[in-house]
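Fig. S4 source data, part A: sequence.
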Amino acid sequence: MGNTIRALVAFIPTDRCQSYVVGDLREMPLDRMVDLSGSQLRRFPLPVCSFTELVKLYLSDNHLHSLPPDLAQLQNLQILALDFNNFKALPQVVCTLKQLCILYLGNNKLCDLPEELRLLQNLRTLWLESNCLTRLPNVVCELSLLKTLHAGSNALRRLPGQLRRLQELRTIWLSGNQLTDFPPVLLHMPFLEVIDVDRNSIRYFPSLTHLTNLKLVIYDHNPCRNAPRVGRGVRRVGRWAEETPEPDSRKARRHALAGEESRGPPPLLPPSS
């Protein structure tokens, strides 16, 4: 349904786009997915809130800055995409969707995250790329099942020590921040498989040989004086690496994201009482 809507709204004036989309939402899709990406929405279409069995909701690339309380009816939702919108704060109602396992918040205007985010204990992937974060909110460190954290293109200068609590975390993307040192907390996370610190201001890399599960480290475009030492079989992308760096390290990020989507969300868990 999403592709059809996107193809048609390109020919509809902006002021009529919202009413067209609302009129198109008459019944629950058989695949339990609604994709309204790129539909020029300025307010959330309330008919979607009646689809209580909905599992995937894509609202990327619109003009949204708020969400209605009625969104809390979507208690089966597992994937929610709010990236490329105008959110200055994460609507509290998102934190009531306790089955969420993938949450896209990239390319908004977020400076912080609410403490209520800790309620999303099924979250596996959190996308915070291209926001206005000057620090990684501590509440992220309470998402115990988190496997992938995208926090690139912000203004992060350091990471909180509490991040080591996330023992399920496997990939962390920190490209395009303001790190001047390799984050010390990452040295205490031997379960990490992918570390991306591309496009920062790191001048020296400590040895990473003790990170026994590491598979890929991207450290290109830093003013570093050395390449990080890694264990056998670990791929490095950056200066002095024994391999030729990829022309665009974003390819690695896209590959990882494609893998997350292809695996699909885990089975629904029974709601907590």
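Fig. S4 source data, part B ends here. The chain has three helices and ten strands.
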